[in-house]
Amino acid sequence: MSETIFPVPAEVAERAHVDNAKYLEMYKQSVENPDGFWGEHGKRIDWIKPFSKVKNTSYDYHNVSIKWFEDGTLNVSANCVDRHLATRGDQPAIIWEGDDPSESKVITYKELHREVNIFANVLKAKGVKKGDRVTIYLPMIPEAAYAMLACARIGAVHSIVFGGFSPDSLAQRIEGCTSKCVITADEGLRGGRKVPLKANVDKAADKAPVDAVIVVKRTGGDIKMTEGRDVWYHEEAAKVSDQCAPEEMSAEDPLFILYTSGSTGQPKGVLHTSGGYLVYASMTHQYVFDYHDGDIYWCTADVGWVTGHSYIVYGPLANGATTLMFEGVPTYPDASRFWQVIDKHNVNIFYTAPTAIRALMGAGNELVEKTSRKSLRLLGSVGEPINPEAWTWYYNVVGEKRCPIVDTWWQTETGGILITPLPGATDLKPGSATRPFFGVQPAIVDAEGNFLEGATEGNLVITDSWPGQMRTVYGDHDRFVQTYFATYKGLYFTGDGCRRDEDGYYWITGRVDDVINVSGHRMGTAEVESALVSHPKVSEAAVVGYPHDIKGQGIYAYVTLMEGEEPTDALKKELVNHVRSEIGPIASPDLIQFSPGLPKTRSGKIMRRILRKIAEDSFDNLGDTSTLADPAVVDDLIDNRQNRH
Ligand code: ATP
Ligand code: MG
What we know:
By secondary structure, this protein is of the alpha/beta class. The chain has 21 helices and 31 strands.
């Protein structure tokens, strides 16, 4: 791994909320006196009834229980909307950029307030009450944010299902939380293509019946409306008042359920509650992105993922920020779109995923360089380990060596960012998520759960709770305990492998399942992938282990080449030699398969579980593939597999 250090630029430190000395002091206080620290920072949001208790959490395997600010009451939508009206009512809350570059609009806090109130009254009129679950299956349109905040306003619990999911996956998730109301649109629009959202809801509702379907008109496409169940949102909105008093909620009342992306197995219904989640989402948003009033902030995630919940909607809006919401995809109309949107709206802070960075890197520098990007000040990455090659490209080409990169490690389960640089405080090392956020106590343990000290490598655990932590798996507390607290009793197990270096920096090496053992040498697949991607002809790589008679495990690499490169045997040899010289002979791939596409979840993560099966030449039972973005990729991989018995 690369050990080049990028020090904090002086002008960044000067402007930032915290420099390194302040980080160290605040971090120390946050772990030595969590009640004092969070008691203070808990006041960053508005409480109806202030809390008197701060932390009440137990990681005891027999009694896992997580409560923060438990006797306080608040309303999340009032925090994200109403409280900004007096000071910034006319400031943009949301800048919406449509799929088609000619479409965009600005929603001020005043307008947001009106829209959320109306949406809340529509929900009430359809019989939705406090505590009810509402499934949201919408494209990236402002109504998605209105719907989330409307649920929060009346105390309903939203469960967003990403618009790319199939009717079956949607039905599963409607049933999973016994939701009686679905909010959708006639059709979505992504990359110029229409997505039949309402038709999918119809199919899902055949399996998982609901009482009400509220349909937002997006494209005007031809859809079927079922009498007595389906209503047009705009028709209902015209009938209700634009005033809806926010419900007083307890800090520990549920805010939302979100199913994890399912890269490792059956998705889990992660439950987040109101007070602690909002404190943590807003605080991380302010400090990690060093957000200041007036900044234009853009997170490219979909609201169907936790990143969209915490860092498009709840965190930024709680902070009175301007958050950009993008309906489209990075490659439409062409692969210059992100950079054009940055120029169009003068984006200062840009947060995206390694999968997008690698794809855009593969498209060539001209597409970036023809844009200005002068407004950019900070870049962010989330979702997977970012290989140093992609990091360096992002830093040099996109950020023109001017913008620090925050590589943020976290999970659906954690509610917000746990390990990350702070731009004014942390010297960067490409590929490292660096240091813990306030209140977060990471540790590395071996397979038996022994704590490993100093520079070391093993399994990443967190030893104590932070306010944004999930509270349970919806309806299945035992699954929550078994999944996260049973492997190492008394510790939250992340499922991720991790290395800590001499400077105390954390490097996520991938899922623990992705660590391979070649002739007794343990290595993270991310390391071999980084080496492959550092070859100029390689755009993306995924590495898995497969049973090998002599070595125990062999290295099987799936490689996607840059546009226009020929997949030849000579190139395979060249790649093997390249990895040998980058890491050493022990890491040489045994088998390389050129693959035009990799199986990815709809959030863009490589589904290694499937790649492992194909590499093992046992692909009859690939398990749950319902979360795959493009199932056809799998057939091509099977046809061209390199390990045939
Ligand atoms: P499932 O839990 O259903 O298998 P998932 O883990 O992909 O799905 P998410 O909660 O979306 O669902 O992803 C969290 C995981 O993503 C982390 O556990 C980690 O493996 C990876 N990850 C996220 N951010 C980073 C990062 N900055 N560096 C390295 N890995 C990251
Ligand atoms: Mg996970």
